[in-house]
Amino acid sequence: xxxxxxxxxxxxxxxxxxxxxxxxxxxxxxxxxxxxxxxxxxxxxxxxxxxxxxxxxxxxxxxxxxxxxxxxxxxxxxxxxxxxxxxxxxxxxxxxxxxxxxxxxxxxxxxxxxxxxxxxxxxxxxxxxxxxxxxxxxxxxxxxxxxxxxxxxxxxxxxxxxxxxxxxxxxxxxxxxxxxxxxxxxxxxxxxxxxxxxxxxxxxxxxxxxxxxxxxxxxxxxxxxxxxxxxxxxxxxxxxxxxxxxxxxxxxxxxxxxxxxxxxx
Length: 265
Ligand SMILES: Nc1ncnc2c1ncn2[C@@H]1O[C@H](COP(=O)(O)OP(=O)(O)OP(=O)(O)O)[C@@H](O)[C@H]1O
Prior knowledge:
Distance between the termini: 57 Å
Largest sheet: 6 strands, mixed
InterPro entries: AAA+_ATPase (IPR003593), ABC_transporter-like_ATP-bd (IPR003439), ABC_transporter-like_CS (IPR017871), ABC_transporter_ATP-bind (IPR050166), P-loop_NTPase (IPR027417)
Shape: globular
Pfam family, one: ABC_tran
Number of helices: 8
Oligomer: single chain
Protein name: ABC transporter ATP-binding protein
Keywords: ATP-binding, Nucleotide-binding, Transport
Bound molecules: adenosine-5'-triphosphate
Organism: Gluconacetobacter tumulicola
């Protein structure tokens, strides 16, 4: 029997922008069902460009992206849904939490009763069922990000793309959200690709970390982490976590711009 196609498969994908900037050199990457893959690397190494290619928000200049072994027209079919979470939660300030979460279902033309029935389960997944009637201005930054995640989950995605979603949050809130994300992804087997500037966040969340280098953007190394490790506070304090962080620090130092000849401050 043939092995199932990876959820995402990039084959010799490169990106040259219209102004001639080479965002990504040709690279290959396959992400399998249920993986939580983080992209880390110095500023400008092409993390967001890679994520946008996977989201079909950018078109490759060369090579091909396949979603579940097919082209982008497969997206939206049963078992092939994709959701994007950005750093800015971009909530509608004039609508309450429930209406904000319902938005993608409204845009998809899901009948109102059916859509309403999916709001509370999505809010429950992010621990916000008590806040359905509140307005964005009445929420903390962490709560607004949880609403944004609930809005991504309400479509029941098969692939979640997250671009530095917790980068603007304080460390305590970020750690809590990381723990929730890890639990959610493990429980639902949700395939996730996660861009972060924090190696600690990548170490905590991921089953695989892709370390990227700049000029031009490319994959420098891949680091696999046992997905079976419980991602909780105890893991954060463990020797295993410290070792993973040390290894990732070493890999990042190999691609640090100063190593490549840049002057410090
Ligand atoms: N629309 C665009 N037009 C031209 N160049 C672009 C465009 N978008 C990105 N780039 C360039 O492509 C390269 C990769 O950018 P990208 O934003 O993907 O990097 P990044 O790793 O996500 O950076 P950061 O960590 O700072 O967010 C950079 O040199 C950037 O200046």
